[in-house]
Amino acid sequence: MTVYNVKVKDHSGNVFTEKVEAASPEQARSILKNRYVAVGKITKSAFDFDLSQLEVALSKVTVKDKAVFSRQLSVMVNAGVAIVRCLGILGDQAGNPKLKKALIGISADVQQGNSLSEAMAKHPECFDDLYVNMVEAGETGGVLDEVLERLSKLLEDIAKLQNQIKSAMTYPMTVGAFAVIAFLGMTIFLIPVFSGIFDSLGAELPALTKFMVWLSDTLRSPRAVIPIAVIGGLVFAFKTYYKTPMGRLQIDGFMLKMPLFGDLNEKSAVARFCRVFGVLTRSGVPVLNCFDIVCNTVSNQVIVNAIRGAKSDIQQGGMISLAIQKENVFPPLAIQMISIGEETGELDSMMSKVADFYEDEVEQAVKALTSMIEPIMMVGIAVMVGTILLSMYLPMFSIFDQLA
Question: What is the pTM of this model?
Answer without folding.
Answer: 0.66
